[in-house]
Amino acid sequence: MELGIIGLGRMGANMSERLVLGGHRVIGYDRSPEAIQRVVDQGARGAHSLADLVNQLSLPRAIWLMVPAGAAVDDTIAQLLPHLQGADIIVDGGNSNYKDTLRRAAHLKSQHVYFVDAGTSGGIWGLEVGYCMMVGGDKEAVERLEPLFKTLAPKDGYAHVGPSGAGHFVKMIHNGIEYGMLQAYGEGFELLKSSPFTLDLEKIAHLWNQGSVVRSWLLELAETAFQKDPELSSIRGYVEDSGEGRWTLQEAIERDIPAPVLTLSLFARFASRQDDSFAAKLIAALRNEFGGHAVKKE
């Protein structure tokens, strides 16, 4: 099958390579000429503009966006639309808010262009082991893209989960769950590290992956991380969030769904970014004022 990919960062470039290896014809575009050259070296064709990418594709076209969520998606769609025709398909494989996806799908439907949302998980390992793909959109468009999904995903690794927006909704909740799992592992290993025993954290991570109820791919990655740096001394404990955790909590609030674990895991990420919390300073000062409790000076 033939596909245009816009956005050739780590995910986009790896997906391009996996598709080329699977026998598909890929045309890639990125604002960075170096990024384009990397996928050309892997066997894809390069485009020097969005219009050039569209012109290199046969009708009906399929174009996959791997650009940051938000304005970048809207801007790219706006630039593509004048060059598209009815029955062309745009796929958003990034982590867009599903409400934006609903809006974009309605707009593109009025222009007779299909819009498919493909929530994509797998990170930098997807090239080797495949990507888990949560797909939303019209059945006709999804079925046309099925050869691509089958190449990108491992066996049983993709599903058409519902209409437009459903793919990004499922991916949003997936990432919210991921926040909670990561936080649980982080807190558990911190307790192990601070125990009265000298514990080999890499050994324990490996042990827990042998039949334990907490075994997982994340735990395998923890084992790898401890192999590289047993004390994690080269890493600062600053944890970013890419938005999906916040959207998950907003959805929980709107639907009156209690989600305390996901909430606290997101707030823990915020706490990781404070070298010296002002709130903690105030608490220490108040304890000193009302109880004469000792404070640590700068």
Report on this structure.
By secondary structure, this protein is of the alpha/beta class. It contains 13 helices and eight strands. An eight-stranded mixed β-sheet has the order 3-2-1-4-5-6-7-8, with helices on both faces. The protein is globular and about 75 Å long. The termini are far apart.
What's a quick, concise take on this entry?
The chain is of the alpha/beta class. The chain has 13 helices and 8 strands. An 8-stranded mixed sheet has the order 3-2-1-4-5-6-7-8, sandwiched between helices.
List keywords for this structure.
globular, 298 residues, single chain
Per-chain topology:
Layout: E1 2-6, H1 10-21, E2 25-29, H2 33-41, E3 45-46, H3 50-56, E4 62-65, H4 71-80, E5 89-92, H5 98-110, E6 114-121, H6 126-129, E7 132-136, H7 139-152, E8 158-162, H8 166-193, H9 201-208, H10 217-228, H11 244-254, H12 260-272, H13 278-291
Parallel strand pairs: 1-2, 1-4, 2-3, 4-5, 5-6, 7-8
Antiparallel strand pairs: 6-7
Largest sheet: 8 strands, mixed
Q: Helix share of residues?
A: 40-55%
CA-atom Rg in angstroms: 23 Å
Instruction: Enumerate how many helices there are, as a single number.
Output: 13
Strand content is 5-15%
What coarse outline follows from CA principal-axis ratios? globular
Instruction: Sketch the topology as an H/E string, one letter per element.
Output: EHEHEHEHEHEHEHEHHHHHH
> Which residues form runs of ≥5 with pLDDT under 50?
none
Number of β-strand runs: 8
Helix/strand/pairing class, anyone?
alpha/beta
CA(first)-CA(last) distance = 63 Å
Q: Strand arrangement, largest sheet?
A: 3-2-1-4-5-6-7-8
Estimate the mean pLDDT confidence.
Answer: 93
